[in-house]
């Protein structure tokens, strides 16, 4: 049978953009015409130690395409392709980076072959934008049939991408009312995603060991076009509802009633906010490959890679430790069935474990 590009693009979307909070894992597509169709997936990050790019190909399946997809030879190019990045500073080329290959051995099983997959990578540091410096990278890949694909992306982010609010306020007095969180946008940011992590130290018995636990809450994703028209005092703003925090927490800890003697210790900075800024190409890819997006017939095989399929874009991540504001801590402590205890501890040292931090 022959599977359409649209069908597998949705699988790609799940891999590429579980918010942008996941790393490059696997990208493959199927096609109807028996010819070489390259598939490229790469999201560059100037803060990453290593940047990975998946370069594969579509294939023809005369039988069960899902079975064919389990064979690496169906979609991997043999050997190592001539793949390289050209760096541009303010539009002028500055250096060239030749990509090497590496085989990962921990890909989870799914639609495509596992646990091994071949990726292209570079450990050379990529450059971050500055006040008067704008970087972009062009990926060029030469294939065995002498075809060449070239695609470019602008780097996302700079040092100005950071939080402005100092705390999250989940005080019960604000139930039913939305709260604002302010941050400074990233250069070339087109989509922003936010995930909150709430960490506490759990001790289940008075003599037992304390174990750090973290509840993650995906607050949501916002389009730059919307954020830029709803600015407050030169800041971008996203909204959250305090009662949603308690709903997530209740589900995470398993209900209202704590085990007798259980304690959950809260420090001064128990919140870590992860902000992701994504480039315009990644934003478009997410938008047009969303199954709920109403497309015209011409959009059914949407791609941002000329001569192939996939996406080549950029992103930046910011992680910031934050306080619980207002009466959030007293409100939590007052819920005695949940067992929360405030212990303070100052601003955490990133080199210390949570146990070392609270001592």
Low-confidence stretches: 1-34, 109-114, 293-300
Helix segment tally: 8
* Helix-strand makeup class: alpha+beta
Strand element count: 18
Q: Give the H and E element order.
A: HEEHHEEEEEEEEEEEHEHEEHEHEH
Largest sheet: 11 strands, mixed
Radius of gyration: 23 Å
Gap from first CA to last CA? 62 Å
In percent, how much strand structure appears in the residues? 35-45%
Backbone shape: elongated
Q: Residue share in helices?
A: 10-25%
Oligomer: single chain
Number of folding domains?
2
Average predicted local confidence, pLDDT: 81
Show the helix and strand layout.
Blueprint: H1 5-16, E1 38-44, E2 51-57, H2 65-69, H3 72-75, E3 82-89, E4 92-98, E5 100-104, E6 117-122, E7 135-142, E8 148-154, E9 162-163, E10 167-168, E11 179-184, E12 191-203, E13 210-223, H4 224-227, E14 236-240, H5 242-253, E15 263-266, E16 271-278, H6 280-288, E17 309-324, H7 328-334, E18 340-342, H8 354-358
Parallel strand pairs: 1-17, 10-17, 15-18
Antiparallel strand pairs: 1-2, 2-6, 3-4, 3-7, 5-6, 7-8, 9-11, 11-14, 12-13, 12-15, 12-16, 16-17
């Amino acid at each position: 049978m022959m599977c359409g590009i649209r069908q597998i693009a949705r699988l790609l979307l799940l891999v590429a953009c579980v918010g942008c909070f996941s790393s490059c894992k696997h990208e493959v597509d199927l096609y109807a015409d028996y010819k070489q169709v390259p598939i490229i997936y790469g999201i560059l990050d100037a803060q990453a130690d290593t940047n990975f790019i998946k370069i594969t190909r579509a294939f023809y399946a005369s039988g069960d395409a899902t079975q064919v997809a389990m064979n690496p030879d169906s979609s991997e190019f043999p050997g190592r392709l001539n793949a390289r990045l050209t760096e541009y500073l303010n539009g002028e080329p500055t250096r060239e980076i030749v990509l090497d290959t590496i085989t990962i051995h921990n890909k989870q099983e799914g639609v495509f072959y596992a646990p091994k997959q071949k990726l292209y990578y570079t450990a050379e540091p990529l450059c971050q934008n500055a006040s008067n410096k704008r970087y972009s990278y062009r990926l060029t890949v030469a294939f065995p049939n002498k075809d060449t694909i070239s695609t470019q992306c602008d780097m996302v982010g700079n040092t100005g991408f950071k939080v402005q609010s100092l705390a999250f306020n989940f005080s019960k007095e604000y139930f039913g009312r939305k709260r604002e969180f302010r941050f400074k946008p990233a250069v070339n940011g087109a989509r922003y995603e936010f995930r909150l992590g709430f960490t506490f130290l759990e001790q289940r018995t008075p003599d037992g060991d304390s174990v750090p636990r973290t509840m993650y809450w995906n607050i949501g994703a916002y389009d730059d076009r919307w954020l830029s028209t709803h600015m407050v005092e030169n800041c971008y703003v996203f909204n959250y509802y305090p009662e949603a925090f308690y709903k997530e927490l209740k589900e995470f800890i398993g209900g209202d009633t704590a085990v007798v003697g259980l304690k959950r210790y809260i420090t001064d900075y128990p919140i870590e906010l992860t902000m992701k800024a994504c480039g315009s190409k990644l934003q478009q890819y997410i938008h047009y490959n969303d199954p709920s997006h109403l497309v015209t017939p011409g959009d059914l095989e949407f791609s941002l890679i000329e001569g192939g399929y996939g996406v080549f874009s950029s992103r930046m991540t910011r992680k910031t430790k934050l306080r619980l504001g207002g009466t959030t801590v007293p409100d939590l402590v007052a819920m005695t069935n949940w067992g929360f205890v405030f212990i303070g501890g100052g601003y955490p040292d990133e080199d210390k474990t949570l146990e070392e931090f609270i001592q």
